[in-house]
User: Fold this.
Amino acid sequence: MARQFCTFFVGELFLGIEVTRIQEVLRDWMITPVPTANPAIRGLINLRGQIITAVDLRTRFQLPDRDRDDAPPTILVLDGSEELLSLVVDRSGDVLEVNDECFEEPPDTLKSESRRLIQGAFKLEHSLLLVLDIDHVFDLDAADERV
Amino acid sequence: MGGMDDIVAEFLAESVENLDQLDQDLVTLEKNPSDREVFAQIFRTIHTIKGTCGFLAFGTLESVTHVGESLLSRLREGTLDLRPEITTDLLALIDAVRAILANIDATGQEGDEGYADLIERLKSHGEGTESIAGIPEPSASTPPSRAKASGRKKSASTPAKGARGKKKAPEKIPARKQAEPAPEPAAADEDADELELASTPTNAETSIRVDVRVLDHLMNLVGELVLSRNQLVQHVAGSTDSLLTSSSQHLDAITGELQEAVMRTRMLPISSIWKKLPRFTRDLSLKFGKQVEIKMEGEETDLDKSVIEAIKGSLLHLVRNAVDHGIEDPDTREENGKPRTGTLRLRAHHEGGTVVIEVHDDGGGLDRDRILARAIKAGLVSEAESEGLSRHEIESFIFHSGFSTASKVTNISGRGVGLDVVRTNVERIGGSVELQSEPGESTTFRVKIPLTLAIVSVLLVAADEHRIAIPQASVVELIRLDDAVSGLGIEDLNGVPVFRLRGNLLPLVFLNQELGIQENTETRSGANIVVLQGDDRQFGLVVDAIEDSQEIVVKPLGHLLSTVPFAGATILGNGQIALILDVFRLGLAAGVISEARAHSIATQVSAAVKTRKSRTRLVCIHGADDERLAVEFEAVNRLENIPRSFIERVGNQQVVQYGDEILQLVDLQQTLPERRKEARSSPNPADSTTVPVVVCNVSGRRIGLVVHMIADIVEEELKARRPGSRDGIRGCAVIQDRVTEILDLEAVVRLADPEFFDRETGSS
Assistant:
């Protein structure tokens, strides 16, 4: 069975979320930082009057922060039933159709915390598409306990 | 099966609502057993639940309600009298129904409890007359009578019943119903129809049920619309295009009205929580062996749903407190020459932009000696210090945590968590609790709460690049320290920065530090202190800049941000997000609230001992010829210097544009009787370009008092009070060794503009 994935980049990682989970993609959007919040929370965004928490995937994957002169990050707003949440990524890629047959367990090369955030990988022709485990990404308390 | 789920959901919502009503009705009925109207109501509710759950195949629920219905029909026929035990069992029946409904709501199943005990007890009440199980009535015989009933209902044009009829109609379809052992004496069914017909139409025909989330969404959208409107109106202001200007004005007006209308949809009458109280009081009074009658006034007072949710617990606690601690047992009451039955009176009414709820009991009042003994024992105050405490100071000890005067701890109240939590909860939403007690006579709690939580008036401050909104309800005053002064003002007390404010030590919290913002090392000139009230403690918040005061729409923060010291966020006119400070949590985080509490009470008390008796805060004003006047601080909103050129004339009134509103000005010199002539000859010194204005609240409306000079804010014990000698003056007192006249603001306004209070308050 083939599924569609919205792909994006965080550092060297090539990641994907199923298209149906994504409500919209925002570029050049203002993020208001929230002092004292968990470091993984980049801040709040104003989406047509709705205030949405934005979690930075760089922090979640324990990658260094973006440089000042890097291109402004992209925000993926996820379709949530109760509360809208969003992810801050470096840039978005194409929507890819992948086949379930090439799905594999997460690669061993990933560090343990990062491994928890990945459901598995799709082996593509030229690259490896990592499937993000959204529930774990937003489980900030568990991440704290580990640190 | 989406349709079925919808039906179940609707059934649950309707039944829960009905059950609350039922509680109230049963208690009413107990007092007045002959009230047929109430009886009909009870019967109808039980009957409806029974009917619907049979159709939805909830067997336990049906059998429980069925015995209840049979018992009720027996009571109705008069073969049985309504005794207190029966009422208790009927109430237990309602609890059982509630528990089953909660189970259905959570799991979709009724749960394992069979309630055989309860059914047995309910049956036993009707023993001996006719067999309760009756002859199982074949369900096929039901539809005709029902159909007939619903036909009649429609002709009576009561949609509430029309809806019920509709819901019952599919009953013919499921075969499940037949499999269900559903014995139903035909008599009960007919009774119900008869009762239903006799009932008066409800307000159901003019109302519909809407999910709160839909309203919240609507509110959100309107908030957005308001922001867009503000941007547009600002943009259009400079335009010469008359068509554009007029349509923007039109949009402006409509948006305002829409906002108000949407706000109204979120309002609920306070009776939505009060109707639980008669039952609640009855249970409590049985438990404590007291006799309590509950009276309610102003049930129709509207409050925002979110406010109602926020104060529900506190209100129940106050009622519990009144029944447990307030009202004496019947024998004691009789000895003291009071009627055996105590009265618990609840009153609600609007007062300005707030709602006041009073919980009054005619019990023994507060026992100050016992409170004081308890306070000394708990180390809140030393014996020596306690000598000079005022009545009010002693009474306020009961709001401190861990304080209970109940001689024994009951499972209802007296666990030491109580009134302090009530006060904290009420203050959290920007309200206040006051207490009045006459020993041997009564105790009254006055809870003052804002009408809505959705729109709050805030003070915007800056901390580095962050914009932080502080609810005005928590702001006591603003202090600006200039360079020269700041060296003197801020002191270090064992590592805690404090500021000496009129003789009291005010602990300081640096906002940048609390928020973990890198402090600019370059020394800033001066400092801004926002004096905040959190819990029972004041503290000063040092901020980078004080920007503006605004009315904002509160938006919740997501669950990932539950630990930050912010209560929510808002969107400013420019689309930027500002965080709303949770003053209480910030105080806790900074350690100025909880940890310091016990300690602070001691210092507060000792300070109070030195300067005891009641003190009043006053804003002192100097008149043109050094005449001394004062306004009570309570009534003062802000002190402003308004440029003379901003003052405009409308008719014979002076007004000034003030924020979003038009502020009417009252010139004190031209208004007060003896000053009139002089004032004309010697107006305010014309050389100054600004005039000092005291912005006051008069009966919930704002006016600006134009004065000669604002001198000082003092806290004084009013000695040698005597009544005023001219119009507009409440009385005289000696303040700072000068005889000072205290203004009666209402009278002053009436002197300046006799029609002021008759005019409708214009909405902004």
